[in-house]
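An example makes the point: we print one protein in full, the chain in one-letter code, the fold tokenised, without further comment:
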Amino acid sequence: MTRLCVWAALCLSATDPGTVLQTAAAAKSGAPGLVRAGKGIAEVPWQAAQCFRLPLGLIQMLCSPLPDVTFAEGLGNTGKGLGAPFKLCVAALEMPYEVVCGLGDSVRLN
């Protein structure tokens, strides 16, 4: 990340070494906030995908007599699939807060 910012600063005619160092320091200090915002955004589709574990678990429990399909795996997926819609709601409600706080952390001047 720091190398990318240094390269971008050089390409944008920031040939002064002080400007390049300031840009790199700003990128390095802002990275954790951007990571927090990205995790908040990525959590919603992840939890939406987890909702598909409920039908998967039910199919695994029905097909457990077949080889390589166990009833225990089906129970595990069904249990995780039952809790997934609630986790999805929590992730969708927390996402704006995480994005705003993450972006705020990345712009905060030290």
